[in-house]
């Protein structure tokens, strides 16, 4: 029998969670915001990384598209910082207690920090090291393409494409999957999808994430992961990359070292949480990205949304 829980599942988004000046309205009402941002800025600049506070508090800050093109590392840190600040706000100021933490792609870093698996400063250093690994891997030009269809139809399209470099990277729902691969291959897939009546959207990302094309970058990044101390979670964490709960420090390392190349099973995660009796979700993001997916999954994993 499923056991209902009133505590919300906290969600942490990936790239879609960035909004210029997304925390502007919190600058006067949330006394803890400057402290969190100062810690993140200090940890970043200590290893030669960028400052991100302005991106979160200034509504005229650079857009997602411009950051993808000019400074992906700053974008990734800004997404992480937004999520940590909102988590702090919801738990400390609003008194909410998460039942489970779930990170989507890059959002896994924030979930690990919120659960106590990683110190904040180590996570900042890892995000910077991650971008250094991606830049140094000599990757081909690539990206990600969202398909308005389910994973089985998407797999059929990939079979017709017959390009092993294109992978099903993210399973978000019954009507949204994301594939990644070389840019030219994605253009061919776009034409195939159009002929099959499947709507597509090219995502503004820097690399073909969750794809074996990033094997070398993942190997480079693993050296940085080896240098940090990981702990078992103090709050339950369900990883869409692992497809299960994070239980041991070894699980934390596995998520960190493999997240660049393994697919994200977000729909599977929602279904598993629904089976456990979780019905309320809250997104720690400047934009409601994952909540739309939660609502869309309502037919297969009944939910009531609070956000």
SSE order, as H and E? EHHHHEHHEHEEHEHEEHEHEH
* Widest β-sheet, arrangement of strands: 6-3-5-4-9
| Total number of helices | 12
* Overall 3D form: globular
Instruction: Extract low-pLDDT stretches.
Output: 299-307
* Total number of beta strands: 10
Helix share, percent: 40-55%
Q: For the CA atoms, what is the radius of gyration?
A: 19 Å
Q: Mean pLDDT, rounded to whole units?
A: 91
Report how far the terminal alpha carbons are from each other: 27 Å
Descriptive overview:
The chain is of the alpha/beta class and 307 residues long. The chain has helices at residues 33-46, 53-57, 64-70, 72-93, 107-114, 120-136, 151-161, 183-195, 215-226, 249-258, 266-276, 290-296; strands spanning 9-12, 100-103, 142-147, 167-173, 176-182, 200-202, 237-239, 244-246, 264-265, 281-283. Helix 1 (33-46) packs across helix 6 and helix 9 packs antiparallel against helix 10. The longest helix has 22 residues, at 72-93. Residues 299-307 have low confidence and may be disordered.
